C-alpha cells in the first residue's frame, strides 16, 4: 500500500514536468507575437523600447535557454509574469484560488447530497415517478452547457423572481471578512459576522447549484445501480427477514456497501467541476481562477493561461491519486500495485 | 408511376416488402435510438439545407434591435437586430461538421496509436501510453484553451485543439481491446498459419475491436459540441459575426434581461447533446446487452 502511494506520488512531478514541457512548447510556437501584448502599438517602431521589452520578458534568448529558465523557475513556484495584470502569475492565482475552491467545494457538496439522495430514492422506488424525475434531472444536468443554464437561471431566479442576489461573491457595499482561509462563508462564520455569512452563502448558492448540477447525473446513476445490485444480495434479505426496518436496511446495510464505487466517481466529478468552474465563473463574475483563465484567454495572456493550466493539472492529478488511494483503503478487494 | 403500382400488385413481396422491412427494422430498434436518431437527423438535415429555408439573413439586420419573440421573429432579435431563430438554425452549419471532424480524427488517430501500442507492446507501448497519460493529466477545457490560444483563435484551430484533447480516450479503449483479442485462439491459429503482422492485426484483431469505440464515439459527439461551444463562449472558437452557438450565448451573457438571445442557441446545444447521448445509449444496449 505504502509502496503504491509512493510510486504514484513520484509519478506526479514527472507527469507535471511532461505537462509543463507541452505547455511551454505550445506557448513558444504561438503565431500571435507576444511582443505585441507587452509593447503598445505606437511604440513598436522604437527599437530601444522593443529591445528593453525583449530583455525584460526574456524574448531575446534561444528556445533551449528559455526552456531551462522556465523549468527552473517552475520548480521554485515562479509561473512568470502576467502580460495583462503585470503581476506574478503565482500571486494572481494564490489570490483567486480561495474563490474557486469555495465554489467547487459548495458545488461538490450540492452534487453529492442531491446525487446520493436521488440515487437512493430512485433505487428504492425503482421505475416510479421519483426514478423518472431523477433520470431527467440528471440527464439535463450533464447535457446543459453550464454557461447557458447559469444565464437562464440568473434570469429566472434573480431577475424575474428575485430569489437570489446578482453575480459576485459579495455586493460592492459589503466589506469582505478578514482573510483566514479565504473562503468568505467560513471566514465570516469564524469571525462571528452572521450578516456577511448569510450574504456570501446566498450569493454562493446559485453558481454552486449550476456547477454541481452538471455532475449530479453521474453520481445518481452510480449510486442507483450499485444500490440495486447490493439490494439483491442475500444479506439484505436476511436483514429484512430479521425484521429490520426498511430505512435501516437501506442506510445501514445497503448504502454503506453501495457507496464504495461512488468514491471512484469523485475524481471524475472533480475533473468535470474544474471544467465547469471555468465557464460558471465567467457567467457569475466569480472572481476565481476560472474567470481569470477566461480573461487571460481573451487577451492571449500566455503566462497566465499556462499558469492556470498547470495548476488545474496539478489539482486533477492529486484528485485522481486521492481517489485511487481512498478506493484501495475502503475496498479490501482492490489490490493496489 | 402506374407501372410501379402494377408491379407491386403482381408480386406483393417486392415494393411493399422493402418498406415493411425498413419499418420492422426501425420498430426493432430501442426507442432511445429512434428518439436520439430523429433529433440528430433533424440537425443534420438543417446543417445541409438551411441555406434554402425561407429565413431571415443570419448576418444582416432583420428588424429592430433586442425585440422579444414575436410572430415575425420567433426567437426575437439580438443586439444588432439579427433574427435569433435564423442564426440558431444556421449554427448547425458549424457545429455538425466540427463535431464530425473532431470525433472522426480522434477515432482514427486514437485507434491507430492504441492498436499499435497494444499489438507491438514494449517500448512503443510505453511511449504511446505516456503520451496518453500526459494528455489526460490536463483538464480538457484548459488544454483546449491553451492550444487554441497558442494557435490563434478560430474555428479550425479550436477543432485541432479538440482533436488533441480527444484522441487519448480512443487510444486507451483500442489498446485494451487489442490486448484482449490478441490472446484469443483464432489469432494464435493465424500466427501458427504464418500470417504476417499486418494481416493478423487488420483481419484477425481489428474487426473485433470496433464496437465499444463506435458506441463511445457516438456519445462523445454531444460532448464535442459542448466543448466547441465552450471555446467559442470564451472567445477562442468562432469569431463574430459567425452564428456559432457558443458565441451567440456569449452575446446574450452581457444582456441577460434579453433572455431570448441566448435561449435559442442553448436549446440547440441541449437537444443535440441529448440526441447523441440517447443514440449512443441505445446503440450500446443494442450491441452490448451485457452492459445493461
From TrEMBL, chain A:
It is a multi-pass membrane protein. GO terms for molecular function: dipeptide transmembrane transporter activity. It comes from the Bacteria. GO terms for cellular component: plasma membrane. Gene3D superfamilies: MetI-like. PROSITE patterns: ABC_TM1. Its main location: membrane. This is ABC transporter permease subunit. It comes from Paracoccus litorisediminis.
UniProtKB/TrEMBL annotation, chain B:
Residues 92-280 form the ABC transmembrane type-1 domain. This is ABC transporter permease subunit. The chain crosses the membrane at residues 22-45, 92-120, 141-169, 189-209, 221-239, 259-280. Its main location: membrane. It is a multi-pass membrane protein. Belongs to the binding-protein-dependent transport system permease family. Gene3D superfamilies: MetI-like (1.10.3720.10). GO terms for biological process: peptide transport; protein transport; transmembrane transport. One of its GO terms (cellular component) is plasma membrane. InterPro entries: BP-dependent_transpt_permease (IPR050366), MetI-like (IPR000515), MetI-like_sf (IPR035906). It holds the Pfam family BPD_transp_1. The keyword rRNA-binding does not apply. PANTHER family: D,D-DIPEPTIDE TRANSPORT SYSTEM PERMEASE PROTEIN DDPC-RELATED, OLIGOPEPTIDE TRANSPORT SYSTEM PERMEASE PROTEIN APPC. It is found in: Cell membrane. Keywords: Cell membrane, Membrane, Peptide transport, Protein transport, Transmembrane, Transmembrane helix, Transport.
Amino acid at each position: 500500500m505504502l509502496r503504491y502511494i509512493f510510486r504514484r506520488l513520484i509519478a506526479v512531478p514527472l507527469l507535471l514536468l511532461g505537462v509543463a514541457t507541452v505547455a511551454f512548447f505550445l506557448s513558444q510556437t504561438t503565431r500571435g507575437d507576444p511582443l505585441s501584448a507587452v509593447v503598445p502599438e505606437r511604440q513598436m517602431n522604437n527599437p530601444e523600447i522593443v529591445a528593453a521589452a525583449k530583455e525584460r520578458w526574456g524574448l531575446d534568448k534561444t528556445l533551449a535557454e528559455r526552456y531551462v529558465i522556465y523549468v527552473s523557475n517552475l520548480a521554485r513556484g515562479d509561473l512568470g509574469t502576467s502580460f495583462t495584470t503585470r503581476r506574478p502569475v503565482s500571486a494572481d492565482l494564490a489570490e483567486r484560488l480561495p474563490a474557486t475552491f469555495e465554489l467547487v467545494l459548495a458545488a461538490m457538496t450540492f452534487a453529492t447530497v442531491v446525487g446520493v439522495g436521488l440515487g437512493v430514492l430512485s433505487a428504492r422506488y425503482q421505475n416510479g415517478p421519483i426514478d423518472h424525475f431523477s433520470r431527467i434531472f440528471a440527464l439535463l444536468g450533464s447535457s446543459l452547457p453550464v454557461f447557458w443554464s447559469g444565464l437562464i437561471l440568473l434570469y429566472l431566479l434573480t431577475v424575474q423572481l428575485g430569489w437570489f442576489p446578482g453575480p459576485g461573491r459579495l455586493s460592492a457595499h459589503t466589506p469582505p471578512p478578514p482573510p483566514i482561509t479565504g473562503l468568505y462563508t467560513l471566514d465570516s462564520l469564524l469571525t462571528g459576522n452572521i450578516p456577511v455569512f448569510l450574504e456570501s452563502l446566498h450569493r454562493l448558492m446559485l453558481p454552486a447549484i449550476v456547477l454541481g448540477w452538471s455532475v449530479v447525473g453521474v453520481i445518481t446513476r452510480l449510486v442507483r445501480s450499485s444500490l440495486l445490485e447490493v439490494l439483491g444480495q442475500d444479506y439484505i434479505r436476511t436483514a429484512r427477514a430479521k425484521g429490520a426496518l426498511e430505512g435501516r436496511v437501506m442506510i445501514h446495510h445497503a448504502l454503506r456497501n453501495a457507496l464504495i464505487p461512488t468514491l471512484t466517481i469523485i475524481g471524475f466529478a472533480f475533473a468535470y467541476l474544474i471544467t465547469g468552474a471555468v465557464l460558471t465563473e465567467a457567467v457569475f463574475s466569480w472572481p476565481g481562477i476560472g474567470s481569470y483563465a477566461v480573461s487571460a484567454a481573451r487577451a492571449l495572456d500566455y503566462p497566465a493561461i499556462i499558469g492556470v493550466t498547470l495548476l488545474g493539472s496539478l489539482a486533477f492529478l492529486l484528485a485522481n491519486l486521492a481517489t485511487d488511494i481512498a478506493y484501495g483503503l475502503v475496498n479490501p478487494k482492490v489490490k493496489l500495485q | 408511376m402506374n407501372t410501379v403500382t402494377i408491379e407491386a400488385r403482381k408480386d406483393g413481396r417486392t415494393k411493399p416488402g422493402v418498406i415493411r422491412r425498413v419499418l420492422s427494422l426501425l420498430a426493432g430498434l430501442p426507442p432511445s435510438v429512434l428518439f436520439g436518431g430523429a433529433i440528430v437527423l433533424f440537425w443534420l438535415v438543417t446543417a445541409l439545407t438551411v441555406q434554402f429555408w425561407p429565413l431571415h439573413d443570419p448576418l444582416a439586420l432583420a428588424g429592430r434591435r433586442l425585440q422579444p419573440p414575436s410572430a415575425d421573429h420567433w426567437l426575437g432579435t439580438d443586439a444588432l437586430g439579427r433574427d435569433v431563430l435564423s442564426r440558431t438554425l444556421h449554427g448547425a452549419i458549424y457545429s455538425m461538421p466540427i463535431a464530425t471532424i473532431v470525433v472522426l480524427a480522434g477515432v482514427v488517430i486514437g485507434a491507430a496509436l492504441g492498436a499499435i501500442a497494444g499489438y507491438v507492446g514494449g517500448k512503443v507501448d510505453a511511449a504511446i501510453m505516456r503520451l496518453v497519460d500526459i494528455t489526460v493529466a490536463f483538464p480538457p477545457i484548459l488544454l483546449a484553451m491553451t492550444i487554441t490560444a497558442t494557435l490563434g483563435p478560430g474555428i479550425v484551430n479550436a477543432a485541432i485543439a479538440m482533436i488533441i484533447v480527444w484522441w487519448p480516450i480512443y487510444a486507451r479503449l483500442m489498446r485494451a481491446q487489442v490486448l484482449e483479442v490478441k490472446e484469443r485462439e483464432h489469432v494464435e491459429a493465424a500466427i501458427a498459419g504464418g500470417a504476417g503482422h499486418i494481416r493478423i492485426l487488420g483481419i484477425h484483431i481489428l474487426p473485433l475491436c470496433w464496437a465499444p469505440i463506435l458506441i463511445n464515439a457516438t456519445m462523445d459527439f454531444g460532448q464535442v459540441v459542448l466543448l466547441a461551444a465552450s471555446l467559442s463562449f470564451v472567445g477562442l472558437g468562432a469569431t463574430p459575426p459567425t452564428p456559432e452557438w457558443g458565441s451567440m450565448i456569449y452575446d446574450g451573457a452581457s444582456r441577460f434581461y434579453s433572455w431570448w438571445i441566448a435561449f435559442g442557441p442553448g436549446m440547440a446545444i441541449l437537444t443535440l447533446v441529448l440526441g447523441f447521448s440517447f443514440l449512443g445509449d441505445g446503440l450500446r444496449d443494442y450491441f452490448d446487452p451485457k452492459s445493461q
